[in-house]
């Protein structure tokens, strides 16, 4: 998308506005995770989700990095992130930002598209663009999101959210994502798979370099170039993704910290909030 300057990010949030995060699971959308938040100082560490991440900024300005591109986004901006897409986010220099997000599972988005279009989706749907300006769809999404949050009129909320997701995909949906053939995996891909399979263990660069067939220094550079994240940051992100699943199943933060490889619950909490915007306790009890 075209960069949005600080001056162009209209509808700035009031300077007196405080940070606030409302997180919930929408039971009528198979417990889809939803968030409405205002961030003034909070900065998201590089991370990815197992789900889609779809949202729109209501006010203010965010500075985000996706696929190595760093951009300012403001009102009218849409986020259409595919599962596994590494990204971060921080408030703009002038002020913070307020936005609304949903995190639909792949199966949920697929079923919604099939219900609305009446056509079978073969494989995994994906978006061809991750950051873009579409004021019309952004406002439509915000309205649907508020209806889901209010949880009063089931039919109206479902119609609104189903409709806007279908229109998003009709405009910006791309070809089906296909995994690379096994024989075409690179050394850094092997290293990433190794981290994903052993995320809770202590892993050294020499060990990873052996898996990848690369020197330690080359591995770090190649890993960041291909996946836009360092090996250590990816390992931490994998731990947080697993922690989310465990917390959704009702496990306690202390148990999750131990099983996911964190030093203690405080260590888990710091990294969890840096990637989700909420603490493990808030994420678990909703």
What order do the helices and strands come in, and which of them pair?
Elements: E1 20-26, E2 32-39, E3 44-47, E4 53-60, E5 62-66, E6 69-73, E7 77-81, E8 87-91, E9 97-103, H1 106-117, E10 131-133, H2 135-150, H3 154-172, H4 187-197, H5 205-212, H6 216-227, H7 231-248, H8 253-260, H9 265-276, H10 280-285
Antiparallel strand pairs: 1-2, 2-9, 3-8, 4-7, 4-9, 5-6, 5-8, 7-10
Helix pairs in contact: 1-3, 2-3, 4-5, 4-6, 4-7, 7-8, 7-9, 8-9
Note down, in words, how this protein is organized:
The chain has 286 residues and is an alpha+beta fold. It folds into two domains: 20-172, Regulatory protein AraC (Jelly Rolls), CATH 2.60.120; 182-285, Homeodomain-like (Arc Repressor Mutant, subunit A). Helices cover 43% and strands 20% of the residues. The chain has helices at 106-117, 135-150, 154-172, 187-197, 205-212, 216-227, 231-248, 253-260, 265-276, 280-285, and strands spanning 20-26, 32-39, 44-47, 53-60, 62-66, 69-73, 77-81, 87-91, 97-103, 131-133. The strands form two sheets. It has a six-stranded antiparallel beta sheet with strand order 1-2-9-4-7-10, covered by helices on one side. Helix 7 crosses helix 9. It is globular, with a radius of gyration of 19 Å.
Terminal-residue CA separation: 34 Å
Shape: globular
What is the CATH homology-level superfamily of the largest domain? Regulatory protein AraC
Helix content: 40-55%
Sheet with the most strands, sense and barrel status: 6 strands, antiparallel
Strand content: 15-25%
Q: Give the integer mean of the pLDDT values.
A: 88
Q: In what order do the strands lie side by side in the largest sheet?
A: 1-2-9-4-7-10
Radius of gyration: 19 Å
- What structural category do the secondary elements indicate? alpha+beta
Reading off the top of the CATH hierarchy, the class of the largest domain is best stated as: Mainly Beta
**What is the fold named in CATH at topology level of the largest domain?**
Jelly Rolls
Task: Tell me the domain tally.
Answer: 2
* Count of DSSP H/I helices: 10
Which CATH architecture of the largest domain?
Sandwich
